[in-house]
Amino acid sequence: MKYALIIFCMISVAAEAQNKYGLTPVKLEAYKKSIVTNPQNELVNLEKFIPGLKLDIRYATANNFTGEKIYTMARAYARKPVAESLKKIQADLKKQGLELKIYDGYRPYSATVKFYETYHDTTYVASPYKGSRHNRGCALDLTVIDGKTGAELEMPTGYDSFKKEAWPTTPVRDPTIRKNRQLLIDAMEKHGFKVNASEWWHFDFVGWQKFTVMDIDFEELEND
């Protein structure tokens, strides 16, 4: 009876650790321990790490596809190697009078669940059964801006468009828009990123599979 009770408790704890989608995202304490063994796991504040980097964190506002404010803080984080590569991209673009603007970086897993339960099409939102590359700190949503005026370069669609025109392989008639999209893709791919198949603004860091899904709020990272 004693052993049966112990087994029951172990099963109960395991069940509580997993969510209804079968994942067990990494929380703050486990994340901090992982940095000790592997410094590459660190989530870096991109705004502080890359001088002059512009942020337009849409999920900290209601100006996004959900129509709701998802984040309570406008922050952009990414794993250390991701941040280091992004810094090189910013430096390359500045030589052309251009800069990056970030729409989103690391995304807590809870936000991915919210997106999926709002819009079930996994062509455009990540599956909570797997978690997203954003949840791993290895994906960035961004665009290119004029370094002097801050104006965004014209792209095929706006951010978070669910139209086929947002796909990076969709033909573009306007030569300027076509050139701008390719400029962004080339700049990112030069330093280890790959564009998402359905979103011209979304780039995954090559090697994202080495990193775990996390569910840590920005407040926790700020107060750590």
Feature tags:
single chain; 224 residues; alpha+beta; Muramoyl-pentapeptide Carboxypeptidase, domain 2; five-stranded mixed β-sheet; two-stranded antiparallel sheet; 7 helices; 15% strand; globular; disordered N terminus
Instruction: Look at the structure and give the CATH class.
Output: Alpha Beta
- Our measurement of the CA-to-CA distance between the termini, rounded to an integer number of angstroms, reads 43 Å
Number of helical elements: 7
In percent, how helical is the residue content? 25-40%
Structural class computed from helices and strand pairing: alpha+beta
The total beta strand count reads: 7
Query: How does the major sheet shape up?
Result: 5 strands, mixed
Compute the gyration radius: what is it? 19 Å
Q: Give, in order, the helices and strands.
A: HHEHEEHEHEHEEH
Strand content: 15-25%
* Strand order, largest beta sheet: 2-4-5-7-6
Mean pLDDT: 91
Give structural notes.
This protein is α+β, with helices and mostly antiparallel strands and 224 residues long. It has one domain: Muramoyl-pentapeptide Carboxypeptidase, domain 2. 34% of the residues lie in helices and 15% in strands. It has seven helices and seven strands, in the order H-H-E-H-E-E-H-E-H-E-H-E-E-H. It has a five-stranded mixed β-sheet, covered by helices on one side. The protein has a two-stranded antiparallel sheet with strand order 1-3. A hairpin with a 2-residue loop joins strand 6 and strand 7. The longest helix is centred in the first third of the chain and has 16 residues.
